[in-house]
Design a protein that fits this description.
This protein has 1 helix and 8 strands. It is of the alpha+beta class and 183 residues long. The chain starts with a helix and ends in a 41-residue tail after the last strand.
């Protein structure tokens, strides 16, 4: 009888040990899934541009000199929420620009520059949704409205009070004030 109790006790301990090990594996897997994937940064390597950095393909006619052009960048194998930064030869820069659209596993960005501008550098930061992400210029189109640069400070108009004419002795003193505008 004593022998049966010790064998049964060992079986119970063994089952708890195996169950505890299995539980530890399940907890470890849940923790790994709960940790968000790390963001990656990809550098633009020239895909979709000519060797001088000009747009490699226009949809429709290229823009007239003095006009504008819109660049379409595509970033593949990405989750929603990607950003990009870029510099162009005409002085246009974008920094941490959020994607304009996201469809499936692709982020789309649209950047307006002066006609004939060339891309000097670009990168994107994103969370991958698969392997082998690509950051390319899909094409350009003529036109588009370039981003406006807000003034550093709004203008402020002020008007100084007009001096009053001397008041005769004993007369009431009028209250004179000029308009003052601050903005």
């Amino acid at each position: 009888m004593e022998h049966a109790k010790s064998v049964g006790g060992r079986r119970v301990r063994r089952r708890f040990a195996m169950g505890g090990g299995g539980l530890a594996l399940v907890v470890a897997a849940l923790v790994a899934l709960a940790i968000p994937a790390a963001a990656d940064t990809i550098q633009f390597t020239g895909q979709g541009t000519n060797t001088d950095g000009s747009c490699g393909q226009f949809e429709g006619q290229p823009p007239a000199p003095g006009g504008t052009q819109t660049w379409q960048f595509n970033l593949t194998q990405t989750q929603a929420g990607a950003t990009m930064s870029a510099s162009f030869s005409d002085g246009t820069t974008v920094t941490n620009k959020r994607e304009d659209d996201h469809n499936g596993n692709t982020s789309f960005f649209f950047v307006v520059t002066g006609a004939g501008a060339t891309l000097t550098s670009a990168s994107a930061t994103f969370t991958p949704s698969g392997a082998n992400s690509q950051f390319v210029v899909s094409h350009c189109t003529a036109g588009g409205t370039p981003p406006t640069t807000p003034p550093t400070s709004p203008p402020t108009a002020t008007t100084e009070p007009t001096p009053a004419a001397p008041t005769p002795a004993g007369a009431a003193t009028p209250v004179v004030a000029g308009a003052t505008f601050t903005g």
